[in-house]
Amino acid sequence: MKYIHRLAGVFMAFCLMILLFVTSVEAVVYWTPGYFEKEYTKYQVLDDLPPMTMEDLLDVTDQMMAYLRGDRADLHVMTVIGGQEREFFNAREIAHMEDVRGLFLAAISIRRICLLLCAAVLLFMAVSKADFKRVLPPSLCLGTGLFFGVIAALTAVISTDFTKYFIMFHHIFFNNDLWILDPATDMLINIVPEGFFMDTAGRIAFTFGSLSLILFAVCLTLTIKNKRRP
Predict the structure, then answer these.
(1) What are the residues facing 78 on neighbouring strands?
(2) In the prediction, which pLDDT does 179 show?
(3) Do residues 162 and 168 lie in contact, with contact meaning Cβ atoms separated by under 8 Å?
């Protein structure tokens, strides 16, 4: 039974890492104050758009992000461009963002499932009378280390050619070519250039790495502490 408990602990660690990854994405794009304004300023996106104010662009962004997490029913966002009120997104952009929304909502659902699975593992261990102090911390250490190692390797590979793997990502997760946008007609591609995605990916990697190391450090400390006990 001890080995089953250890496998359950490793499985729980994987669930926790997925949970932390999804939370890291959310933390960067939703919880970082002024993030989009900073990025828009950095890449001077207003220069690539028809005349509009930063305030209006940030309002459009807020509506877009609310839509992606299911807090808004559609992406028909009205704003002022060139002194006239009009929709910001065209039909192709809206269709693509419907696909992106699907990914966002799927990630949120997966996080909830992982949280439930973690609770199920703890319940299983409690019912089967596992020695939590001696089994859970080292199992979480092992699972966290394995998962983080795989993610670190993938990050290292992606960093060698971000554009290549960015395109590969779209081919894997989208079954159409709606993500191929034209800067001359589609404003979405102009407000989120490749540099924006690189910065965002870097922030997500840093946040996820920090949370993972904290989890690993806590589990390692508990493992060492419990081994010293008679």
Answers:
(1) 87
(2) 94
(3) no
Q: How far is CA 153 from the centre of its chain?
A: 18
DSSP string across 10-70: HHHHHHHHHHHHHHHHHHHHHSSTTHHHHHHHHTTGGGGSSS--HHHHHHHHHHHHHHHTT
Q: Residue written as tokens 């104050």? A: 33
Q: Is 63 exposed, middle or buried (0-12, 13-18, 19+ CB in 10 A)?
A: buried
- Report the predicted TM-score, pTM, of the whole model to 2 decimal places: 0.91
> Mind giving me the DSSP string for 62-115?
HHHHHHHTTSSS----EEEETTEEEESS-HHHHHHHHHHHHHHHHHHHHHHHHH
Q: How far is CA 194 from CA 39, 152, 166, 172, in A?
A: 11, 21, 9, 18
**Residue 179 DSSP label:** T
> In the block, which residue shows the tokens 């395109």?
167
Residues linked to residue 85 through DSSP beta bridges, in sequence order: 80
- Across the chain, mean pLDDT equals 93
67, 101 contact by CB (below 8 A): yes
The pLDDT value given to residue 229: 66
Structure tokens at 11: 């499985």
Contact by Cβ (8 Å): 139, 132: no
Across-strand partners of 81? 84
Q: Which uninterrupted H or E stretch holds 127? A: helix 91-127
Structure tokens at 171: 């081919």
